[in-house]
Each structure stands twice: as structure tokens, then as C-alpha cells.
Amino acid sequence: MNKWENNRAWLLTVPVLVIVAFSSIIPLMTVVNYSVQDIFGPGQSLFVGTEMYKNVLRDARLHEALWRQFLFSGLVLLIEIPLGIALALAMPKKGWGVSFSLVVMALPLLIPWNTIGSIWIIFVRPDIGLFGAFVNNVLGIGFDHTARPLDAWITTLLMEIWHWTPLVALLAYAGLRAIPEVYYQAAKIDGASPWATFRYIQLPKMRGVLTIAVLLRFMDSFLIYAEPFVLTGGGPGNSTTFLSIYLVKLALGQFDLGTAGAFSLIYFLIIEILCFVFYQVLKNVGKGTGT
Amino acid sequence: MENRKMEIVLDGVSKVINGETHLNSITLQLTSGATNVILGHTLAGKTSLLRLMAGLDRPTKGRIFLDGRDVTGLFVRKRSVAMVYQQFINYPSMTVYDNIASPLKMSGLPSADIDRKVRAAAATLHIDRLLDRMPAELSGGQQQRTAIARSLVKDTELLLLDEPLVNLDYKLREELQAELQDIFRARKAIVVYTTTEPSEALMLGGNLVVMDEGRILQTGPTSSVYHHPSTTRVAQVVSDPPINFLPGVVAGGKARLGRDIDIAMTGHLSAVPDGEYAFGVRPNHLFLHAQGAGNVEISVKVELAEINGSETFIHVSHGDLHLVLQEDGIHPRYIGSNITVYANPGCFFVYEKPGRLLASPFGAG
Amino acid sequence: MAQIEMDGVAHSYLRHPEKDADYAIKTIANIWDDGGAYALLGPSGCGKTTLLNIISGLLTPTRGRVLYNGTDVTALPPEKRNIAQVFQFPVLYDTMTVYENLAFPLRNRGLEKDAIHRRVQEIADILDLTPFLKQKAYGLAADAKQKISLGRGLVRSDVAAILFDEPLTVIDPHLKWHLRRKLKEIHEQLKLTLIYVTHDQMEALTFAEKVVVMYEGEIVQTGTPEDLFENPEHKFVGYFIGSPGMNFLSCRLEGNIAYVNGLGIKLGKQTANAAQKTAGKLEIGIRPKYLEISPRPVENALPAHVKSFEDLGSYKIAAILLDEKTLYARLPEDAPLAAGNVWIVFPPEKTKLYADGRLVK
User: What is the interface pTM, i.e. ipTM, of the complex?
Assistant: First the structure.
């Protein structure tokens, strides 16, 4: 549709442009500036060109954090998406149960992120935490998220899944509700099993919302900071030091703004590229199917 | 009462979106006083054309003049236009009364005037007893009547209707078609109505614009276009059931149609010079019994017979020619049976091979 | 193939229906013969889609039974009843090719690959879909998609009946012919029971051998297209069938003359005899096709005024004003133009009498 141009409408966007400029563009430019400098202290810096970038490429700890991050995001997507879809399929379609389940689903999403970390610290404590006590005393497994890396990972994953699967579930539920009833009727008449109905009707028609879910979950999990920081502080050792936690340590802890700046930009690029790839893949999966 | 005729003129208007030409150099002049019907298959460009006239889209090329004023650059809100869509579009949270009143509320008329106009429009569409209902409580026909009433209430210069009856039941459509005819006659506005059905175009009368693939093929008074379709394509678009075409070769006062049907080129056909042509005959001019001397006989095989209670449609084949015949009354015929079909050459259209009309049974166009 | 019987079927969408108006279908008893082509015709909201869904099993009726060949199937779901349904909008499996779409019902029933292949080819051939078999179903035009929907029903060789719910809704008018013809050919070839729901009388009458007319949840008349046209048993059938519908005029009866506004119209002997025993509001009905126009006064005619005269290509319609009531006459293409004051003639054999909306016979 070739709409008319209304030049006055551009004026309405000025406030937004100002806000975006202050909160995103100017800081971004600052980061770019830092990334080509070696900063010794406030006001004392030396232009070093691409040296910081070279540092980044050589930093072994950074690479470890990167792989950890990929593993984490990968696991998150692998678990959350199918789980969210399953929850959406199980949610009622009619009656009072609809509102009830929607509210219950939304609750974890409403909690401030660092509070989530605090909740889970207590939850997994072997003495007073429901989960910790159950696993340690009833199942007899020595579970300690502060001491063993595997336990820390499990806890972080469980926390993340508990926090964000509802988002996937709600998106998938919306997608399911949009499917016209006739498709189910036709599938019944064709004698399709519930699995076939899911595979050939529901899943293809949810492609749009699932694309959004995958992109959102990928971006958020790749950037994750507050929850794991509160829960484990990055430990034990480095085992749950994800990218953003490491980055903050670099920038604020070690005041290595140059390297941090360089890495921030690379971090930004990685997310952009991966999102683009995901989007293209999902778009092509649906190509020629109209869903 | 104003007797001045208003007109909308499109001059060389084209619309290209993403490399696809939706409208190709349209030049058109539509006036008030008679309903202007735009007939064409889906995707012919009718809706695109209407949107340009309304000002919802801007043409890629060309200009639009409303009553002499150049309105090409004018946004829809500045134009005096009302539009009715296929989907019954009403404000769902307002009553019927408020729906109909909405265009007037923004123009700042005193409420007594608004009330009068709303009730008048509602009475015209026979929904005056439904004024305090909500659209969701109405049937499809009533919702569309509300939309039409809303379009009438403001007395705009341009009244556009985009296949407004296509989503209604057959019988409702018939009733509304008759009512709309009277309503349009009483209006001073330029009325433009699009449809894909030839029978609706004929029912509404007025002037006909035949469109196909973004182009205008023919314009003129409806009856005249029907009796003198200027090309084979126009003949196809304007006929329901579809017109029959037989390829033929004319030589020495006689014509051979298909492989073995011979006719004498007399009457209106006598002026046709030798050559290859397409002969067109409407289904209701093919008969199961001879209608007089000079009828040409064609032996055919019955492929399908359809009876609709008062008429029979028989689909037949003669070699690789496929024809449709429409006969009054009930005449069951069995699939596969061999029968004879009669045609009066006096009813044949003759089209040149590229498709232009050369001879029509109804005389010069 | 099956004979389908509806025994005292009634249905309400409310949980606790009380009055008549709560019922979408108000007690239907009907037999659909094996191999018959039926149309279920009625305006929007008359209950025809509800009835279709009860036949197919997508809906369980509040009351009554549905029997297939004498067996009670009321409690069976659609897949167990072995029916196929084609909906208003093409319902396809978008991710599959045309071949896979057609093969889907057979795969679900566990047929072998060879048998599936043969059957799919056979049906694709009948429906002229063979060139498209390898294409993704999504990219095809609406009429091809509806054919695929139909094909999914036809592939099952033991299908009891095929039900159509206004299947030509999204098809272009100039393509509807082709599909209607396809349906008729399939009926001739495969002799299946076909039930076709529509609000379009043209579609119904050209498709069906027998038409079932529904109005407000009840079956008003069942008959061949000719029956319904010549002898509508209910005013609604007279109105709904025929384009334009039947003309009705209130009248008073004396002997075998019906008086409209003081002027007499002679009725046929049989009608007049039957009329002696009836009571109720009397009206005469005549189809526009049979209403004649005469420039001079003749027998059985009333004076009237021609309001408008439309040329509709293969026929003409005259709108005639008789004391504030508008009547329509349908005239052949070459009828001379009638205008001004005329006499409208009511041929006795074609003039029907209705008492309280029902045909007097």
C-alpha cells in the first residue's frame, strides 16, 4: 500500500528520537570510542587503534565465557520452546480456566529479575529451601549450587526456564487460538492422530509466533545478567560466568574499558548476526506454505 | 434541485507496486446521474482503481480530476468521498445510530440536523427500527445496510461501493440490488460500483466499464456493451453463462466453423470479408429445436445437463469444440447422448482474429 | 455408500433450551437415499450448516438419532462414520504437496504405499490435478484447492457420503461452472451420496436431483428442482426459489374466483375446489415467469402501471406497480418494451393459492 506522506507526522517522532539518541546512540558511540583507546584513568587515555580488538581475540577467559554462553542459550532454546508449546497445548480453550491459567502463566514474568535470583538462592538451599532440602534429604543427592559447577548450572537453567517458559507458552497459546476450527474438523474427518494434527496443522500455523519466541528467548538468554549474578555471582569459580557477567567484571571490576568496549561491540555483532540467521531460517522453513 | 452533472476524470493513471502493474494507463470519465458499474474478474484492478479514486492510495503516474479540480495530491480526508466495502465494516462499539451519524459528527453540524439526516438515511435502507442496536446483534444484510446508510448520510460528491453485496445471501443480494437502484437514482453523487458478476452489472444498469488485468477494455451504456462487446475478452467477461466461441474461415459468402459446420454469410454477416475469424454465440441463442429456416444444425454429444427449475443448461461437445446451451423450461438430456443443436446465424458475433468485434447481430454499436 | 436417516433430530446450542426459539433445528425427520445428489437450501441462519455437522458427526444432536444404513451412528465421531466434508474455505495441509494432501487420509488408515499411490493417481486424474501433484498445495488457486479438499474425501473408496458446506464461496464466478460440472461428473461416475449446503438457489437447483429447503430450523419442502419451481408448497419456497421470487397478493375467495381489490381472477378448478375447505389468510401467488403483460384488458387481468423495465441480457424484468405493491414479470429477450398503464394477466393454471402461507391443493 503506497500511503500518502504526511510530513507533519515526522515531528511527532522527535521525542522518541531524542530518547533513543540519549539512551542508545550516544552511549554506543562512547563505547566505540573506548574500544580504540587504552584508558589508564579518567582523562588519561591513549589511542591504540585495533589493539583492543586483538586483545579480545587473544583472551582465553573471554573465549571460555563465550562458549559457556552459547551452551547456555542453546540449552535454553532446546528446553523452553518445546516446553512452552506443550504448556500451550495443555491450557484450556474455553471457560473460566482460560483466564485462570493465563494469570498463573504470567506470574513468573512479573517478578523483578534480581528478585528471581534471590528466590532461587533460598529455594535451593539444603537447609531451608524446598528444592534443596528435598533433593538433599529425600533423594539423598548432595546438591550444593555454591560448591559444584554442575549443580550451579542446573540451578541457573532451572531458574531461567521457570522464569521465561511462560512467555513462550503465552505466545504459543495466542498462535494456537488463531487457528480456525475448520482445520481441526477437517483433520478429524481425515482420521488424523493428535500427533499428525500437531505436526501438520498446529505447528506450521504457529510459525509466526514461534519465530518471535525463538528470537526473543535467544536474545534475552544471550544477554542474561541479573539472575545468574544474584544466584551464583558467576561461580563457583568461573563455571557460571556468562558473557555479560564477564564483561561487567572487565569494565567495572578491572576498569579495562578498552577491552570491554571492543568486546561489547563484538558481542553486539554476534547477537545481530545470529538473530538474522535464525530469522532467515525460520522464514524459509515457512516459505511457500503461507503460514 | 441541482441538475448539474458532476464528473470524475482519470487521466493516464497507472499504479505500479513492487514492479507489478496493477493499473495500466487508465483514462476514464465517470459522471453522476447514472450508476457507473466496473465489471471484471478478481484481480482485474477494480479495487485498486477505487482506492485511487477515494484518495487512499496515490497513483504512480497520471492525474485525477474531480469536478474540474486536480485532486491527485489530495489526501482522502480532504476529498468528498464515501466508500462501502465487501466486508460489513461498522464501528463495533457504537450503536447503529452512532455509526450512521459518525461522518456528520466530525463536520460540526447541529445535532437536530444530524438527527434528521440519520433517520432519513436509515429509513431509506429500512433499518429505522434498528437504530439502537449494536452491529454484532445484526444479521449480515442489516450490517451492510448500516454501512450503506453511513455512506449516504453525508451527501458526498463521490460514492464508491466495492462489491458490497458479494458476502450476502443470494436472495438478500437480489433485494438490495433492486433497492440500491432506486437509491442511486435519487442521488446527485457520482456512483461507482464494482462487481465480478455480469448479472449484477446488467441489473444495475447505467454505464458499464469493463476491466481486465489492469486495463479498461470497454466503456459505454450497459445494454450497449452487452450487445456489442468490442473484443472476445469483453464478451467473455460480460456473459454469464460464458459465451460460446467457434473458430471459422470465411470464403466466398460462406463460412466454415470448426471442421465441418457450414453457414451462409447473410444478413448482418454479409459485410464480413474473407478471412479467419472467431464466431461468438450466446448460450441462449442455441436451441434444442429448429427455430426457422436458415438455422444451422450441429450434432453434438451431451457432456452435462443442469436444470435450475425453470431453465436448462446443457454442456455439449462437437469434436473439440465445447459449447453451452441455455434453454427455457425443463429438458433433461443424458450424459453421453447424441443430440442436435440449432443456431440462427443471425445471432452470431464475428470477431477478428486479434479479437476486435466486426459484426454484431444487434446492428452497429 | 450409505442411506442416511435422520430420526426426530433436534438441536439447540444452549445448554438448557426451553422454548422453540432456543432450538437451531426443530425436529427433522428425513431420509437421504443412497447415491442421491441432494442440495440443502436455505437462508443464513436457517440451520443448514448445523444439520450438516450433525450428519457428519462434528456435532451431536440434543435429541434424536442419525442412522447410516439402519445403524445408529449418533454417538460416533466423524472419522468412524466414514464421511468426507468440504468446507467453505479450502482446508489444506499447507506444508504438504498436492500428492501428500490426497494421500493423507489413506496413510492415516494404514493403507499400503502401492494402494495409496494407485488411488491418489486415480482421483487426481478425475479432478484434473495430475499436473500439480508434486507442487506444494499452498501455491495453487482457490478452485484447485477446493478440488484437493474434495479429493481428500474421494480417495477413500468406502466413503459413505460427501458433505459440502457452501464450497464455491471463494471461487470466482466464471470458474464456478467448471467446479459444478466436475461435481456432477463425479456423481455420475462414482454414484456417491452427496449432500450440498448452500444459500444460492442457482447452485442448489443445478447440482441436485432433490432439493431440501430449510427455513428457521425446519424442512419446508423436499422435491426435484421442477417440483419446487412449479409447485412451491410454502410461501417461503415460492419466494426463495426463482429469480425474482414469486409474487404474492392478498385476496378474497368467492366460488372459484379470487378477488384482488375487487377485481376477479379465475383460479384453476382443482385449486378452487380445494380452497373451499380451507380457512386462513388467502393469497394468490404467481411466478414472474408466468405473469403476462397485455396492453389491452383481457380475461383474468388486473390494471397496473409499469414502474421500470430492465434489460438483463437474456431476459427482461418489468417492475409493475399495483396499488403500492410491486410485482415482477420476467419476459423473454425479444419482448416488446412495455411502459405506462398495462394489464397484467394471471393464467389460471399457473396461479397458485396460499392459505396462511401453505399451498392449497
Answer: 0.79
